Amino acid sequence: MGDLIPLFPLGTPLFPGIVLPLQIFEPRYRRLMRDLLAHPEAGDRRFFGVVAIRQGWEVERVAPAEALYDIGCTARVQAVRPQSDGGFRIVTVGGERFRVLDVVVGDDPPYLQAEVEWLADEEAAEEAAGDTDGLAVPGTAETAPPCDDGLDDVVASVARGSLELLTRGVRDLFTRYVAEVSDLGSGGDGDRGGGDRGGAGEPTVDAETTVLLDAVSDDPAALSYLVASAALLTTEDRQALLAESATRRRLALEARLLRRELTLLQTLGAVPVPLQQFATPMTVN
């Protein structure tokens, strides 16, 4: 048996550290907010689990366990503003990742709940990079074997260097990607060869993105979650990034995804539109 937590299905996953504002208007989620507000403000129970919807838009009309992805992230309530109509405007921040073991459907409470197991916290920088597969030990022709005492420091150094290079690479790719999307979204015809703008040699991004990148510049895990949440990726791609527990492997996957997206942007000259924008209400037909 895992911990029982309330669920809030959305069209896209939430990531740790990412701010998620929501407007609560459905009766079942108004009840959820009242239940959460009944917990002490100083406690740690004012949260719900966000899980992405795998298929359909009305989860209760299909088997919830099949309609939802199995990896989610808690949304911890930071601010609540009750509305005159009985709804709420809230601000949440992504917290801990979890795996859904079972979905519980009932009349009281009216919202979905899930039994979950908590996924391991992100490793320290050395451990996140310490997936030594493919890392070469300096002065040898072979990749690193399982660490012996004499190799611990060497492998850790190689791993840290690998993570730093990977972090810089993803930051540079994301900067180029944001500039490309911004240029195409504004209808510009800027040079799409490698991300240069106006011959300046550097991609230009908006001030908000620059501030966000600067804020996570020293935190590879935070950078990886920022990229995962901000890039115009499919739900499947984002879900794969959320499910990845090692920062180094998540960044490596993001590097591949960003190169793919840059190639598509530069080839097609169009910004992708999230599939949710084409969603229409379900009918009896």
From TrEMBL:
Residues 2-262 form the Lon N-terminal domain. Residues 185-204 are annotated as: Disordered. SUPFAM superfamilies: PUA domain-like. InterPro entries: Lon_prtase_N, Lon_prtase_N_sf, PUA-like_sf. It holds the Pfam family LON_substr_bdg. This is Lon N-terminal domain-containing protein.
